[in-house]
Specification:
By secondary structure, the protein is an alpha/beta fold. It is 42% helix and 17% strand. It folds into two domains: 101 residues, 3-Layer(aba) Sandwich (Rossmann fold); 166 residues, P-loop containing nucleotide triphosphate hydrolases (Rossmann fold, 3-Layer(aba) Sandwich). It has a six-stranded mixed beta sheet, sandwiched between helices. Strands 2-1-3-4 form a four-stranded parallel beta sheet, with helices on both faces. α10 links the parallel β8 and β9. α5 packs antiparallel against α6. It starts with 14 loop residues before the first strand and ends with a helix.
Length: 370
Amino acid sequence: MAKPQFYLTAPQTERCILIGVVTPDEKSWQVEINLNELAALAETAGAQVVEKIIQQRPQLDPAYYIGRGKAADIAARVIDQNIDLLIFDNELSSTQIKNLEALIEVKVIDRTALILDIFAAHARTREAKLQVEMAQLSYYLSRLTRQWSHLSRQVGGIGTKGPGETQLETDRRLIRRRMASLKHELDKIEEQDRTQRKKARTNINVAIIGYTNAGKSTLMNALTRAETLVENKLFATLDTTVRRLHLDPDKTVLLSDTVGFIRKLPPTLIASFKTTLAQTVDADILLHVVDISNENFYEHINVVNEILGELGISAKPVLLIMNKVDKINDNNILPKVKSLYPEALFISARKNLRLDRVKAALLEAINSRG
């Protein structure tokens, strides 16, 4: 009798529709940019983007976000195109999610849930996993009235990489108890990190910051041979890497590669990742890396500056680094950007182009501190 054969099959790719709404407070082109980034996030999570829908409304519908009529129209598209998932660019209330799922009969998540899902998938260290779990529980705590059936481990998929069994409980007390336990663990890690940072205060601390996928890890590897994970994905790595960087025979700094920023970064993540972001807060000098080949890099710079302001560190010395110059095909772009940002350094971390200028600028910044 022949032995039975078993085959492992990859999980089915979820087909999704992205939805954005233009209100009087936003421009249509801004919503289009946001949906393009949402598409990149969805693809990072493993979804296949089938369609993008942009609706114009005088105000958001409190029951269905996009209105019942538009929701019914999308329900028909879901059937026609065999859609598994709807992703909204803005945060939805528990009532809106519940109503949309009841009418359309597919899983509905928002941008925040998608980002949390990506963080859950990419967390590697114990600290990062605890931080993601805390952020997820904080997000879902206010959504306990929603239908939880699609969050079960049996269903799985994007938006369901939960922090554990407590996510499936509808008892706020249990979730708050878990959050208290997580906070206790994270406080201990933060205290240990604070002690280590105090010991390292004899060194100059430099933090690499920037919009996600700007090339921070590539620059870290090029400068220090740190072998940090590099992928062409948003949030490829969440864990901070710290390495020594020798600028000259007498000057060495501690260089850290931190988590990338993104527009509409969930406040729960900023709060939960305070131990990771402490590397940025405690840094003496910041290297702000910008992907100059991205057509939206101006806005990326503004987003990073806004988050620095939220962290209360916008006054720190910053070296602006325009990365990926090797991907610029338009000869008119570089002169224009150089006129707008005359203090910036133009490099290619991937090609090891002009990295000596980064070291020289760092050395000059350190010497100017006295």
